[in-house]
Amino acid sequence: MSKRTLIALLILAIVACALPFIVSNYRTFQLTLVLVYAIALLGLNILTGYNGQISLGHGAFYALGAYCTAILMDRFGVPYWATIPVAGAVCLVVGFLFGLPALRLEGLYLALATFALGVATPQLLKYHLLEKWTGGVQGIVITKPAPPFGLPLNPDQWLYFFTLAIAAVMFILGYNLIRGRIGRALIAIRDQHIAAEAMGIHNALYKSLAFGVSAMFTGVAGALGAVAVQFVAPDSFNIFLSIVFLVGIVVGGLASISGALYGALFIQFIPNIADEISKAAPWAIFGVFMIGFVYLMPTGVAGAVRLITRRKAP
Amino acid sequence: MDALLHQVLAGLATGGIYASLALALVMIYQATHLVNFAQGEMAMFTTYIGWSLIQAGMPYWPAFFLTVGIAFLLGVLIERVIIRPVEQAPVLAVVVVFIALLLILNSVTGWIYTYTIKTFPSPFPTQPLFGNRYLSSHELGAIGITLVVLFLLYAFFRFTPLGLAMRAAAQNPESSRLVGIRVGWMLALGWGLAAAVGSVAGMMVAPIVYLDPNMMGGVLLYAFAAALVGGIDNPMGAVVGGFVVGVLENVLGAFVIGNELKLSVALVIIIGVLLVRPSGFFGRTQVTRV
């Protein structure tokens, strides 16, 4: 990591810590969601950006993580912080298992299979046999955690810092994963899977692993999202969520760690801006923004930033 | 037994609609190797145009053909204006553009026509044809129209010089360009045809599911399933797949798992087929050179 990147990261950390004391509680809540989405997008980016497997169904893993947390808190009285590793572990296993049949699917076919998963998610959550736990259509309401140890923070600010800490851990994990042996294997599979296999990389294992790890990140994000929003219901995890995730990583920048953050800012704030521009057809404006970003920055915001900094650097 | 027969026939009718949309998907896939996620919304939008024409007092059949014509122009326009600039972009960027198109069409339709559910007229008589007890005449008519569309497309691609040129452009763009085929326009034409086929599907499904901006969500998923069952590079397979998915959806929904999980049937079909035969039942297995 170069000196410049370190300085940039330090500034980012200071700004991130200062923000909740400057902006309103509602903005703090929105920023918490940005962090949550950033974790989810990082997870999807490991799968799609670095390993080349397109997923249009990551909302399902987000929902799984959210429901794990909600059910553990609501039915079993587990404290919120203890539910997050559980949600991650469950998603890791489920993602790995979903990755096994997905091994046989390439590109487009995988996109369609995961698309079907994303579409079916709300229905599966509403299924009447599961209603005992999931609360059916009504969903589950969970309580907002109060700051511990008598910290002088309001609940929104505490939640923000809690999410920030976990996001930092997840980003470091993701960074190390990508930079290490496993990350190189994933990228090799994406670029030339036959050559990778010839070099002794176990394609099937690594691809399923990528699915599992990616689902784990997204599941942790879902768990944090559930705590932040304090409510889970089947219809908030529709196909649209999965689509928005994919849009986020493409706009933010594929195969880039920082891209996850840009993408999260995009999917959190652009709909608000679109809503302000036109109340009648906000999603049309959002669509125009999407097309605009793809036209102007085909490699995403992260790619554009890289291009600009490289030009400036001597 | 009677109930089963009834479900199978009703499944054939909805299957015909899935088949039309699957056909539109396959056509764009063949020409560009992309799956158009906005296909359902394009069909929905053109169905609204048809509704406006009928509301304005036009008789059904002229409105029907005029809508198909407008859909064709719309498809060409979308290819020329929106898709062409990202032709060389990475696949995922194009997918995002498709999704943007889906959102824009959906939102604009909701804005123009509001989200209230509208009824769409059927061109067929209300009492069942030929005194049969199983199929309403609209269902029978929808099957018939699907088959007619399929036949017309087959004839177009098989027997006309333009169809031959389009097939050539899809199969080998470089060589086609060398023999003087305008590949770019062939692609636009393919988009136009797909949009036209989609509009037929939209107008056939609207009397059954009623007209609202979100009506195509489920239908599109079944159309994907149909295209995959048949093999995404085979138009004939897409039609057979459409009928199979329609029947499976209805029979399983009615007798095995209930209506609650109907959409999950599509998920199971997609994953099941892909596991057993990744290239679909009629598709060609892709062979790549290392």
Descriptive notes:
The complex is a heterodimer of chains A (314) and B (290). Chain A is mainly alpha-helical and 314 residues long. Chain A has a domain at 28-134 and 151-237. Helix content of chain A is 78%, strand content 1%. Chain A has helices at residues 3-22, 25-50, 58-76, 80-102, 107-126, 131-134, 155-179, 181-191, 193-198, 203-229, 239-252, 257-277, 282-296, 300-312; strands at residues 140-141, 231-232. Chain A has a two-stranded antiparallel sheet. In chain A, helix 7 crosses helix 8 (181-191) and helix 7 runs antiparallel to helix 10 (203-229). Chain B has 290 residues and is mostly helical. Chain B has a domain at 20-216. In chain B, 74% of the residues lie in helices and 0% in strands. Chain B contains eleven helices and no strands. Chain B is globular, with a radius of gyration of 19 Å. The termini of chain B are far apart. The model of chain B has no long low-confidence stretch (mean pLDDT 81). Classes of the chains: A mainly alpha (314), B mainly alpha (290). The A-B interface holds A 48, 54, 101, 104-105, 107-109, 111-113, 115-117, 119-120, 123-124, 126-128, 194, 239, 243, 246-247, 250-251, 254, 280-284, 286-288, 290-291, 294-295, 298 and B 35, 82, 85-86, 89-93, 95-97, 99-104, 106-108, 110-111, 217-218, 221, 224-225, 228, 232, 260-264, 266-267, 270-271, 274-275, 278, 290.
Looking at this protein, list some descriptive labels.
heterodimer, A: 314 residues, mainly alpha, globular, B: 290 residues, 74% helix
